[in-house]
Specification:
The structure is a single chain. With 415 residues, the protein is an alpha/beta fold. It contains 13 helices and 19 strands. Strands 14-15-16-18-17 form a 5-stranded mixed β-barrel. A 3-stranded parallel sheet has the order 6-9-10, covered by helices on one side. Helix 4 runs parallel beside helix 5. The longest helix has 24 residues. The relative contact order is 0.11.
């Protein structure tokens, strides 16, 4: 520790995730020979804020997709998770700031917005508002031909808003898609995980939304081999998978994250965990949710290149992946298609006609060129007016990062 502290005093600066809007200031101080460490959370009084401003310039990997974090941190105390330790308590961005960010990104040519956080359902509980209040405001600014996708929400925080969420997920410019982790179908395991809901409550959410939003896609997660999970407990999870036939299922093996309560529990033998993982995967892989879609006519929004390199990816209203022919004029536009083939995780189609056509950001024609978000004036004020050109700035950040990683390596592995 003393060796590490001496190295820090020698000129290393470190910036926390909540302080990225001060990176230019930190670089300037580092160039003067000072060491700066900014790890604190942004607060107003005792209330934690969402983090760095949503209006900061950013580079989009895909200029057609904008990712907006609506809050950071969480309200849960899950025994296997380190999110609370890393991100702290819940901190939500104001509705106005999120809506303004949405208006800006749509004006810049974005076609699809992903609202994300550690738990979108908990949004606003720290500032006296709710997720439906935000969404009712946001859908009003979504242009024709653009879509909104909601991120993961834990079951406890959506139970209070099921009617509103059904209305929102039925909106024509909102994907009828929700990521709702169950983790385990055994109430005793959920209790040991401190998940704060029962399997019955999870099933109520799924059943309600499937009834009110026909065709909705529900994605979920399970953890195989949590320390207190018995064979009977795991069989309940298998029964849940067989019953609901989730189109998207994320199967994870339990991993003891250092410092968590679950890491101190006696672990299940690795061979048993692998066996359970294989059982769950076998059931999931035997289910083909799209076979009955062949012949259907659907409308899809095309936003990205497929992993096979020969198709573009479009998503229908239910966020199912539909592969379309790779024609550049399709990017950023909606297409009316007919499903001709179905796989486990995708559908293929023939294009019937092109729906709404919108101009695509010019940067998308070059896959190696990334698109800046934010105005030129703001970028210039942060970089050029302080006599730090962008290449020098990036080199400085890379150098600081490499130095930090080297010091951490030496601190952990030196003789």
């Amino acid at each position: 520790k003393q060796w590490y502290q001496r190295r820090v005093r020698a000129g290393l600066s470190v910036v926390g995730t909540h302080q990225i809007d001060r990176v230019v200031e930190v670089v300037e101080e580092t160039l003067k020979g000072n060491s700066v460490r900014l790890f604190g959370q942004k607060r107003i009084g005792k209330r934690k804020l969402g983090g760095a401003s949503l209006h900061l310039p950013k580079i989009r990997k895909n200029p057609l997709i904008e990712i907006i974090a609506i809050n950071t941190g969480c309200l849960n105390q899950c025994t296997y998770c380190k999110t609370k330790h890393a991100r702290g308590e819940l901190g939500s961005y104001p509705i106005d700031e999120i809506v303004q960010r949405g208006e800006q990104c749509f004006a810049e040519g974005v076609r699809e917005v992903w609202m994300t956080s550690e738990d979108t359902g908990a949004y606003g509980r720290d500032i006296g508002v709710s997720l439906p209040e935000l969404l009712y405001r946001f859908v009003d600014i979504i242009p024709e031909g653009c879509m909104l996708r909601l991120g993961m929400t834990n079951p406890p925080y959506i139970l209070d808003h099921l009617e509103d969420m059904a209305v929102i997920l039925s909106h024509p410019r909102v994907y009828s898609f929700l990521h709702l982790p169950i983790q385990a179908a055994s109430d005793s395991v959920l209790y040991e995980m401190r998940r704060e809901y029962t399997c019955e409550e999870f099933c109520h959410v799924v059943d309600f939304l499937r009834k009110k939003v026909p065709g909705i896609t529900i994605a979920t997660d399970i953890i195989c081999g949590f320390p207190t999970e018995t064979e009977e407990d795991f069989n309940e999870t298998l029964s849940l998978i067989e019953h609901y036939k989730f189109p998207s299922l994320f199967i994870n093996q339990f991993f003891p994250r250092p410092g968590t309560p679950a890491a101190r529990m006696k672990r299940i033998p690795a061979d048993q965990v692998k066996k359970r993982t294989k059982q769950a995967n076998t059931i999931f892989q035997s289910q083909f949710p799209y076979n009955d879609k062949i012949g259907e006519v659907q409308t899809v929004l095309v936003t990205e290149l497929a992993s096979d390199g020969v198709h573009y990816v479009g998503h229908n209203k239910f966020y199912d992946q539909v592969l379309v022919p790779k024609k550049e004029r399709y990017l950023g536009n909606t297409l009316n298609v007919k499903i001709t083939e179905a796989g486990k995780h995708f559908m293929k189609c023939c294009v019937l006609d092109e729906g709404s056509k919108m101009s695509v950001p010019s940067s998308y024609s070059n896959p190696n060129q990334l698109r800046y978000s934010g105005t030129k004036k703001l970028v210039q004020r942060l970089l050029l007016e302080r006599n730090i050109t962008r290449p020098i700035f990036l080199i400085l950040i890379a150098g600081i990062t490499i130095q930090f990683l080297y010091i951490v390596y030496r601190a952990n592995y030196k003789d």
